[in-house]
Batch of 2 targets.
Target 1
Amino acid sequence: MPRSFLELFGVEPKAVAQAPGRVNLLGEHTDYNDGFVLPCAIPQKTRVEMALSPDRLDHFAAEDLGQRVDCEPVGPTPPGFAAYLHGCLTLVRQGGAVIPPVLMRVDSQVPMGSGLSSSAALEVAVLRALRELFHLDLDDVRVARLAQRAEIEYAGVNCGIMDQMAASLADEHHMLFLDTRTLERRLLPLPEGAELLVLDSGVPRRLEESGYNERRRECEEAARLLGVAALRDVGDPGELAALPEELAKRARHVVTENLRVLEAAQGVDARRFGELMNFSHRSLRDDFEVSIPALNLMVQLLQGEEEVFGARLTGAGFGGACVALVREGWGTQLGEWVLDRYREKGQLGTLLVPR
Ligand code: GLA
């Protein structure tokens, strides 16, 4: 049995906050290219409880991981989950807020390594708890920006802002259409008559060990060679012909993916939205090369189903989950059916949404 805050620390928490994971429907690997994204919150959340520490150390507990870390507020970054907590605390402290040592207990329903932004959910939940306990003047965008800095500076992933904006501003019932350059955003309804299905492939990945940072460097190099600030500034894939072949493929994914998000955000029907998702998967697989055989198999099984409008890998790739847009009311049944076919091929996946 996981121990409560009281059992762990001998006092009741003084602030409690939570934040959701997210699933991205379209707009993958576009956010660090100043592009467009379309994520949605998932029902799974991360919860953080907090109180003042009785001594001069920060004390962190993650019961579901069976980990406890005691940490100097001004000291080296601890490993594992504590890096995110220490990172958020340090950034807020550096920002000028007087934050004494704290006790923190975290628990999360957001699966780790599935491409559903468990780390952003954790960062945003920590910052929300800090905001509540210390009455910090932080709006939701500022929370997202601090959370992104924690990820970059303390977890070593040179990520964009999508995940943290989604954890801070998205809900389960809308898609968050976000321009990652200006942070202009709108909440949009899902296509009529459709719902989301999210399946974990059972193949985990760690972003900091994956090709993520390398892809980012490739995109920046392509933008530099094209003489634009970011690949967002290329509107026509025809402009990429001058690039070396591999960089042209990477850039083509980003440019076409932005076009897909912009089209979807205009309000297309479920059938067209699904088509755009299928194209997105193909582009991630063939041009951006971040898919793996298990994800391709799962997507192929999903795409073969009559009631599935479209399917693709979601998140950074290299493992993790797939998202499908399916006929309303069909999610659970389809998910179980596809997971059976997946198991027949020797793979073990899980149904994450609907819950
Ligand atoms: C990870 C990053 C995001 C984004 C996606 C890919 O989730 O944290 O910023 O780049 O990968 O779309």
Target 2
Amino acid sequence: MDKRIVLLGPPGAGKGTLARRLAEEMSVPHVATGDMLRAEVAEGTELGRRAKQIMDSGELVPHEIVVEMAIERLGRADAATGWILDGFPRDVEQAVDFERRFDSAVPDVCLYMKVDTGEIIRRITGRRVCPRGHVYHVESNPPRKEGICDEDGLALTQRDDDTEHVVAKRLEVYQEEIGPLVDHYDELGVLRRLDASGDTESVQTRALGIVSQ
Ligand code: AP5
């Protein structure tokens, strides 16, 4: 089965949810630049302070920061046999720089997740997260006790960048960058389209069907 997978898709498409499931199924790490940046914010590092302002505006964090971060993470021993990349690369510039600086940066498969806008909004507005990053949805994946994380008992909140205004900006940035990025992976012969509608089980089954071909 393919072990190096890039997930592309709009904000709220379910990239993180699918990536966690594939990573578990395939015993490879889930590497999400958004999660790594949020961890920096939570730790109050200098990088986290810089990144937070940008993330809260819906724009992309500077290229050098995220490429460096991803390469450092993928260079660790647990990523030697594969990885699931979620939220990176975000544009062609990141992809090309990644390929220039990292051996085997071209994935076996790039899954391009398609889901309609109404469903994206429904997924984002219903998302709840705990401070340690566990993700729920008020309808499709509710916690056992309302507002409380099943894993660590901490209070669930909405992400700071899940406000209507910031989501609109994130979608705009996504629309600007996704076309050339999809073309890039198509030219490399690794692009596969994934219907990401329906429940998480169905999306996972479809994804596994593609990556095991
Ligand atoms: P990032 O964290 O990468 O956010 P994103 O791409 O906007 O994606 P999301 O995390 O919002 O959504 P998702 O697709 O993972 O959906 P999820 O699985 O949670 O980036 C945030 C910011 O960081 C960026 O704006 C940027 O500033 C910065 N950044 C990050 N990477 C960068 C990079 N490479 N370069 C520059 N800047 C970068 O699902 C959403 C909800 O739906 C959840 O509640 C989930 O439970 C639910 N759900 C999931 N699947 C289903 C399903 N099939 N059915 C029903 N509900 C579902």
